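S.,

Sequence below, as promised.
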Amino acid sequence: MPLSPCHTRTVNNMTLSIKVISPAETLVDSLADEVILPSTTGQLGILTDHVPLLTALDIGVLRYRANNQWQAIAVNGGFAEVEDNEVTVLVKSATSASEIDANSARQELASAEQKLASIGDSDKQAKILAQQAVKTARAKVQATVPFP
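The prediction came back faster than expected:
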């Protein structure tokens, strides 16, 4: 089996290799200078020579900097592993910021917030699903905002 392009490149001591993989596709297979992960305990910054790490990801925005340009991906939870300057991210689903229409994302967020507000406290399952829809829509909106 041939190696992926990421593994045929030499990772120098100032770069990270990043892969973002969903069940549907590999969204990123690149070199990066810095990665920011939406972990379940908060934003987690990864630079070269980071200690080995395995972390759960929350719904949020993954950002990485390559060639002095920040790229964003709205992710729907998953896991990330950091080891030997390689960041491997497995996500349930994800959308690259370049594929998100900002106006549609804002409309999706407003609709999700309205739906959440209309659900009574007695329907716990519907409320949880609506809260996840709000978080997903909010991540899409945040991914379209330039950083920093």
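The domain at 5-97 is CATH 2.60.15.10 (ATP Synthase; domain 1).

Coffee later?
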